[in-house]
Amino acid sequence: MRKLPEEAVVGTAAGAAGSARPHESAVGHVSGAAVYTDDIPAPAGALYAYPGLSSVARGRIVSMDLDAVRRAAGVVAVVTSEDIPGHRDIGPVFPGDPLLAQGEVLYHGQPLFAVAATSQQAARRAARLAKVEYEAMPAELDVEAALAGGSFVRPTHTQQRGDAGAALDNAQHVIRGEFHSGGQEQMYLEGQASMAVPQEDGGVLVYSSTQHPSEGQKLVAEVLGLPLSKVTFEVRRMGGAFGGKETHANQWACLAALLARVTGKAVKLRLARADDFAATGKRHPFYSRYAVAHDSQGMIEALDLELAGNCGNSPDLSDAIVDRAMFHSDNCYFLPAARIVGHRVKTDTVSHTAFRGFGGPQGMLAIENIIEQIATATGLDPLDVRKRNFYSEEGGRDTTHYGQRIEQHIIAPLVERLEQAAAYRQRRQDLLAFNAQSPVLKRGLSLTPVKFGISFTVQHLNQAGALIHIYTDGSIQLNHGGTEMGQGLYTKVAQIVASEFKVPLERVTCTATRTDKVPNTSPTSASAGTDLNGMAARDAAGKLKRRLVEFAAQHFAVPANEIYFEADALHAGKHELGFAELAQLAYLNRISLSATGFYRTPLIHYDREAAQGRPFFYYAYGAAVSEVLLDTLTGEYRVTRVDICHDVGQSLNPAIDIGQIEGGFIQGMGWLTTEELVWGEDGRLQTSGPASYKIPAIGDTPPVFNVELLPDSPNVEATIYHSKAVGEPPLMLAISVWSALRDAVASLAGHRISPPLDAPATPERILRACDALRSAGKEGTS
Amino acid sequence: MIRFLSNSGVQEVDRVDPNTTVLDYLRDHQGHTGTKEGCASGDCGACTVVLASPEGEGLRYRSVNACITPLGTLHGQQLLTVTDLASEAGLHPVQQAMVDCHGSQCGFCTPGFVMSLFAHRKCHAEPEREQILESLGGNLCRCTGYRPILDAAQQMYQSPGPDQFSVREQATAEQLRALASEEASLEEAGKHYFAPTSLDTLAEIMETRPGARLVAGATDLALEITQGLASIDTLVYTGNVPQLQLVEERDGELLIGAAATYSQCRDALCKHWPALEELLARLGSLQIRNQGTVGGNIANASPIGDMPPVLLALGARLILRRGGETRSLPLEEFFLAYRKTALEPGEFIEAICVPLPAPGQQFQVYKISKRLEDDISALCGAFFLVLGEGGTVSEVRIAFGGMAAIPARARHCERALQGQPFSEQAVERAAAALSRDFSPISDFRASADYRMQVAGNLLRRLLLAQGMDADKLQVTHCA
Question: Which residue of A has its CA nearest to B366?
């Protein structure tokens, strides 16, 4: 069950880093007092904005008659691209994302214009009244066809080691195949929301549910033609984000700001769920094709893998996302010779974007599918194939195909530990016996590992800032560039600050993330929130401590090296000063009690030309064993038991870390099972809300769900208190569910035939795979 | 005017558009933003609130989705939201358990979970896993993976003693009875809401106001408002008519009043047809079943409603009423075409009558959906079977949802079985005959091929079920 270490590992004070403190907003959450963007009371006279969305996937706008929109009840203003005073493109990295359509429709659900009205409903109603005439153009929605047609949003990138082609040509055992994995809607419970409030100096204050306030600030400034200094973004918390509010929160903030500028009023913009589904990007669907050479023992000799990310209509973050898929296409396995090609395929859908894992899951799933194929071909247990191919210190098998050396060999002992704890071998035997006597229901079992690289692969994003004030009553206000989306970042960083000062956590208040407190911040993503902001906060705390020690040394005439913080007090020789008294005394002696902190991740580099380097500061590891029960008549199934062992280094907060692991696992399970995005031939997303798009519900949580943090495994790198990032890696533990389903299907033909099973493994896909095996089995015996 | 009880006392509401949902009333009119909007379609539970109404000496608590509950239906009930639970003594045990178990991460779904847990604790004396899953199946959480919430559902029972609501329960019930004594109505800018308390008045309103829309659970109708942005001129609520809530056995039939919710008729249905346990646990969510009605599921005439195939297979009939006239119509004559029914203008369903089971009858129903809980069926097959001498099929009714534009009997399939031994051969012929009964569509729920194949496989499952335990044959929603 939930195994929480008993004691704090870092500090002794209650609430210090290492202790399982509840989320800093837990009481606010359960009592309804926690305020989200749309809960902020609007200033008097505030207006409500809504976008008008395209109803074709691709085409030229012949005419756009907005008279009815303007005349609709409650409408105050209507804007089109023509009304934008500054930049009209809000592409976050590369251009290609018009704020409002400029004569051309790029995807179904694209904002064409926006309306501001006196109520949310008036705005929504009005936005539907536009008469838009399109000259429809053929839309390409199929990733394979677009790939064949050479349609890309960014150039293809290749990583190579050795001569995979030659190795494949000379190999005895070669498997070729192709594989699809589906996209995934973030389905944050709080939809996209912003409120822009005009300021007296012509600037604007924007409240936005965003993971990247600094980027929102920059884009609003560019759209309005303002210096960044006149635009402030604030976000106290998000009701979930998962990557979906990294760049895809920008458009709504920009539109609210634009309409606030035009009307002079505060403007709220909140998307209704169906429009949120239609108009914001998702996890990239991926198509891969591969050739793998292996020996009779299941050892990989060479891999030629092409990964084609379906990017939708624009680059957005796709370059980095497909790169990350490539960086994870080895997962935990040494590839003696490899050619990994990453395509950024352009299709005429909404632009796909960040989602927890950021391409990593897609790359990892591709290789795990290949491992499964090898296991079937060799007749080995897939777990043995996995273990044999792990990176290892011996035999020069410790370097990735992009040149990063694996320095901490955690995965083999971690898997060994989990294999024992979950009684994998015994259960494999039990399962074979069960399947032999059960004609309809079949059980499946799988253990899959995860190795996930931590750092932004875009180097400059690996920086963070923090700001700490100590007030004269000894209370501490903390601010940093990271955003709180439920992951517990504010809690962890507050714990770090409390640990630094050796004060109770209650002294520390973390305030809303604001671009006027800590500037030029990176998005809270890549699992790096705590690594970066925790270190920045520690830096700020360190500065304050040094100042206070220096002051105390003078004041008490005690050598600085005899001064330390402990138990909510400063100890200087025989003097003991409570933290509040210390703050008061320092203030009276004119010591600055405010400091900024800064951090940049060391050691990382990647030469994209050579496709070699050390893009990751370190790797986080984990493994999961999943067992499923499958109905081979309908394809329906349940996950009956899951065991996880996950490496978070030295945990900063075991409760939060376990929460991330359990939640990430279930979210990953959704991606691979019931969450299916279906676009119609007209380019319209048909699964446009929780009625049709099924994320896991409470009954999908396995009845047996054991999660353990890998004990005694501090990060060897100098991360904050030797912890490891935990946001994204656990999502990929759920590959074990897909793999277990595949295992259950494979039992229909004695595990001798590889089930064709793309992701997500919906009941329909499962049944199709069952049928394929049943008929292949029949052919095999006749 | 409508009158209801909030935690702060009696609320009298007049001159509010009857199309207003409880959620919009709370957030936009009252500024009570503790209750969240996640989907505005009743599919995520973030907006869950609890309604209390008098029952016996005390109160019946039920969780509902505020986003699809018309404001007028609050009349005579107590509305409790997440901001009402804490008291001077601190957090409510339900809330404290969520904090202690780390049950919130982003916190946006949390108010809904807290209210579903609160209702659960009011309705169940013990924390039983299966019941907890049912109570929380309509609350989506994207962060936690639900584990800590399941822990909280157990832990909340460790705090003994009555809460502030139990202490006042009798007084609240009396207060609510007094509030309900007057008939509710709402009017604003030409929009009307009527909530008659007698069948005659209801019939009269429906006859004299063409275009009036009948609203029962509103679980579907409200979507026209929240998704379609419709503004309905006249809403006529069935939920305050006592005769329409009846669930009783009468003359060899189970009579279900058209406004009886799933929750109200579930026990009676499952008593006679145990196969309905699994179906009703998976039909919508508890919030939906607390509001949705069997009558609405029929009148709505959706091809994917789950009760019509069940009732077709059971040979149910409807009592329809217009003005003072009633008529009886076999259910299978009710569905004419896609979302078209045999209802005449001004006519409505008064009751559903299901012949009570007799010895020798078999009834089974299988719902197939992507997600086991709270998902709309890709298809739903219902099977009524009587095996006579030597195992031959002497009576058979098979009906499917999701296979055609209306819920429909599979006549060719039935004929292939009628009079035949219930054997593999007959089942294979019957499965093949399904292609003459149906040509289903492909959509995002399932392809036509999958629907056809599984429809046949459900017949095969039915045959296997003759000699095997159900738990060896199918995956159930909480194994």
Answer: A634
